[in-house]
TrEMBL record:
It comes from Calditerrivibrio nitroreducens (strain DSM 19672 / NBRC 101217 / Yu37-1). This is PglZ domain protein. It comes from the Bacteria. The lineage of its organism: Bacteria, Pseudomonadati, Deferribacterota, Deferribacteres, Deferribacterales.
């Protein structure tokens, strides 16, 4: 029975009820009590007025007279005569609250006594009820009271801590803590914290100290060796039992909470600013630092430490360190620095493996297309990440790789210059002028639709990256990679013309090109040329494809079996003096754009696609020096002089340049051509100082990608498999168990990589450990490189020796369970911390 019902019961016996509320508990709620037909008045020095109102003005109406104090003595009560024929009402607020909240535990009386101020407000009680179950226990009610006051999302300790920490670590300015203090709930808050995390009861806590202990606990969770570190060991001793583990797991779950992990970043940074804890760790070894994920400044310490060491002497060690940091919450903020260094290390590793023993031009091309192209890739990736990182931090490595790349380019292309012949270019079956005959005829003869994407300046190594992106995706693509040899000079006009169906190509001295005596400069001209060979052909730009829906593309492609799509992203940026420095950023955008276009084409009914290029390019990020230029000793009149080539019948061979004699046969016609060797360029030409150039015959300009893609309804790809190779007995004996796995085979075109998420679960599928992650993505044949090690941390709970637990592996991309292994858990040392 609530207050209203009790009062109505009193009014059934008398028209006047005196309510004596000794503690004033219901004063705030009086105005919210609705009693139809009853006059409600608070008695406060208005007795004579009330007496007149009751007896003279409204002698038949009902009155509730409320006192926010105890019942006065008869001789002091001016309404004593009315009291004699009225009913009196005394409400036991504690009993009413207990009844309203359906509380059954015995400790409520003391809880009510200690926090009476909290229970006085009806609105607060109503809000409290939203946090509670039907029959709350002492802990639930305590958390609910705290959650009510600070307006936490839920009444669990996790959300309460988040709400308090959202207000900062300065207790004088923390509004949540101020609200708790207002109702004396701050002491309850800290008591609950100490009890849950097993912090010594006599330890005086502040928000800063609590946050500091959380940071320390997470450090030890991921780097157990720190538990004996003298500079912070005293703080670990503040925990009892497995409290340190409990706190560590709390922080781990906090960091994985997408809604509140930014809060952890803010709080941990404030802890570090005030305690300088990261500075106490900076002398640790890289092995130990690499396992600490609790503080952002650890990233800076690791990077500085790496940069001060001789990376070239232990490349795989540093690659492993960088791989570990991918798990860090702050990876996104520091990945450009780390990935710059990773690509520097891979660049160095490729140089160590570089084999230039090739004695023929064909063998050197084979070496380049199988391995040496990675030199260009790692250099490009380094520059890309470097320009998006903290440049000052890794500037020394920028200078190193810039110098080494130019040296290796000169060395590699010097070997290439010695082997290269005109015959290799012009009489090569892989010459791009044979593209239509070699790669398109076979589809058209079988009435198969084929789509060609020509990406301007997509050099070979970028094509390889596209191939990797496509076969790493889980789309049903069959992807193969080959190369073609560009026509010379390696410029857009020549390359675009050569990729069209043709009988003869004529290259004029001014750089214009005719295909079967017709120009092929723009899209309309190329469309017309295509139609002379195939009336069911279509030429369009990538922009036009992107502007269409898949339905519109299906309609556009109806009746077409030969489709040419032109993309101009890399060359457009690189050819411009003002933007050439951003060319590697554009490469990244180009690859993403190509992948999207390919998927859109497949959705529009295209299943056969070829991606290739008109020419490659050379690029150096540093300024071009004078020693990289050579003189052009001839009269420049009536000659179009390009930094990387010059055409003209009057030209003769000169030092430092390739000289290719004029050709006029049934396939091609052009004048003599001079091309500076390696990456040299002619002086006194417009563009001689450009860092992005093409037109020459380096491997980077001449060797072109040929990426063949076929979409198949049948899934020919499989996700790479793995097996656990240790422990051999299915028994876990440590709180910090280690597992070793073997990736069953190398990742390849038809074997996709896998990111697996591991955890230990009980029979009810409750997670009993942290999550661990392994990337099964190694393409090496070496078994050692395909061996992966996983370390997990069990939660600080009791395990039954008779129960069977499971180590489960999930595909992180789609959350599908892949494998599970049965284990029994026998912790050998019961008080073992980790």
């Amino acid at each position: 029975m609530d207050i209203k019902e009790k009062l109505l019961d009193k009014f059934s016996k008398s028209r006047i009820v005196f309510w004596f509320d000794e503690e004033g508990s219901f004063e705030d709620e009086l105005e919210n009590i609705s009693l139809e037909g009853i006059n409600i008045h608070k008695v406060e020095n208005n007795e004579f007025y009330l007496k007149y109102l009751i007896e003279k003005e409204k002698p038949t109406e009902s009155f509730l007279l409320y006192y926010n104090r105890k019942q006065p003595k008869i001789e002091e009560n001016w309404l004593a005569d009315i009291l004699l024929y009225s009913e009196t009402f005394f409400a036991d607020h504690k009993f009413l609250i207990k009844d309203e909240l359906n509380i059954r535990f015995e400790k409520f009386d003391s809880l009510y006594k200690d926090f009476k101020a909290f229970f006085k407000n009806k609105k607060r009680i109503n809000k409290l009820k939203t946090y509670l179950s039907d029959n709350p226990d002492y802990k639930e009610l305590s958390l609910g009271m705290i959650a009510t006051v600070i307006n936490a999302e839920k009444n669990d300790l996790e959300n309460i801590l988040f709400k308090v920490f959202e207000n900062g670590l300065d207790e004088e300015d923390n509004e949540a803590l101020k609200q708790l203090e207002k109702y004396n709930l701050d002491s309850m808050f800290y008591i609950i914290i100490k009890d849950h995390f097993k912090i010594k009861k006599d330890e005086e806590l502040t928000l800063l100290k609590l946050a500091f202990l959380f940071v320390c606990s997470y450090m030890v969770l991921t780097a157990p060796n720190l538990v004996s570190l003298n500079s912070i060991k005293e703080y670990f001793d503040l925990f009892e039992g497995k409290g340190l583990q409990v706190a560590g797991h709390f922080v781990e779950e906090w960091i994985y909470n997408s809604k509140y992990n930014d809060l952890y970043s803010t709080i941990s940074q404030e802890v570090d600013n005030k305690t300088k804890i990261s500075q106490k760790l900076k002398n640790l070894s890289l092995e130990d630092l690499a396992n600490i994920y609790a503080l952002e400044n650890i990233e800076n310490i690791i990077l500085v430490k790496i940069l001060n060491e001789n990376l070239e002497n232990n490349i795989d060690f540093y690659l492993d360190i960088i791989k570990k940091r991918e798990q860090s919450f702050w990876w996104g903020s520091y990945k450009n620095n780390y990935l710059s260094l990773e690509n520097y290390l891979r660049f160095e590793k490729t140089l160590l493996l570089m084999n230039l023993a090739a004695d023929t031009v064909e063998n050197l091309v084979l070496s380049y297309t199988k391995q040496l192209y990675l030199i260009d890739t790692y250099y490009r990736n380094f520059i890309f990440y470097y320009k998006n990182s903290n440049n000052d931090l890794i500037f020394d490595y920028y200078k190193k790789i810039e110098n080494k790349y130019q040296n290796v380019m000169n060395f590699l292309n010097s070997k290439w210059d010695d082997l290269l012949t005109s015959d290799f270019i012009h009489n090569n079956p892989k010459n791009q002028s044979n593209f239509y005959h070699n790669h398109l005829d076979q589809h058209l003869q079988k009435s198969e639709r084929i789509c060609i994407i020509i990406s301007d300046a997509l050099r070979y190594e970028i094509g390889c990256e596209l191939e990797n992106k496509l076969y790493s995706s889980r789309d049903r693509f069959e992807v193969s990679m080959d190369y073609m040899v560009a026509n010379i000079p390696t410029i857009t006009a020549v390359g675009m013309a050569s990729l069209l169906p043709n009988k003869k190509i004529e290259i004029k001295d001014d750089g214009t090109v005719l295909v079967d005596d017709k120009p092929a400069t723009n899209l309309k001209m190329r469309q017309d040329l295509l139609k002379t060979f195939n009336d069911d052909s279509l030429a369009l730009t990538e922009e036009e494809v992107n502007s269409c829906t898949t339905s519109q593309l299906r309609e556009l492609f109806k009746g077409k079996n030969l489709i040419y799509i032109y993309q101009n992203m890399i060359d457009k940026i690189g050819d411009d003096y003002t933007s050439e420095g951003n060319v590697f950023d554009m490469v990244d955008q180009c690859l993403n754009s190509l992948e999207k276009v390919i998927k859109k084409l497949v959705s529009s009914g295209i299943i056969n696609i070829i991606v290739t290029s008109d020419h490659g390019f050379i690029y150096q990020d540093s300024n071009v020096e004078e020693y990289q230029k050579i003189e052009f000793p001839f009269d420049k009149k009536n000659i179009v002089l390009n930094p990387r080539y010059v055409l003209g019948d009057s030209l003769i061979s000169i030092s430092g340049s390739h000289f290719f004699e004029k050709i006029d046969n049934d396939k091609i016609k052009r004048s003599n051509i001079l091309i500076p060797k390696s990456t040299l360029r002619f002086k006194s030409t417009s563009g001689a100082g450009k860092r992005f150039l093409h037109g020459g015959v380096t491997l980077q300009e001449l060797i072109l990608p040929l990426v063949k893609i076929r979409y198949t309804k049948k899934q020919n790809k499989k996700i790479v498999d793995f097996e656990m190779i240790s422990p051999t007995k299915n028994i876990i004996t440590s709180n910090n168990p280690k597992f070793k796995f073997l990736q069953s085979e190398p990742v390849s075109n038809n074997v996709l990589p896998l990111k697996a998420r591991f955890g230990i679960y009980d029979s009810k599928n409750n997670l009993l450990s942290n999550f661990g992650y392994i990337n099964f993505d190694t393409s090496s044949e070496d078994v050692n490189e395909r061996t992966k090690i996983l370390t997990l941390q069990l939660k600080p709970i009791s395990f039954s020796k008779d129960d069977v637990y499971k180590l489960k592996a999930y595909d992180e991309d789609n959350d599908v369970l892949i494998k599970e292994y049965d284990f029994k858990i026998h912790i050998l040392i019961s008080n073992e911390f980790f």
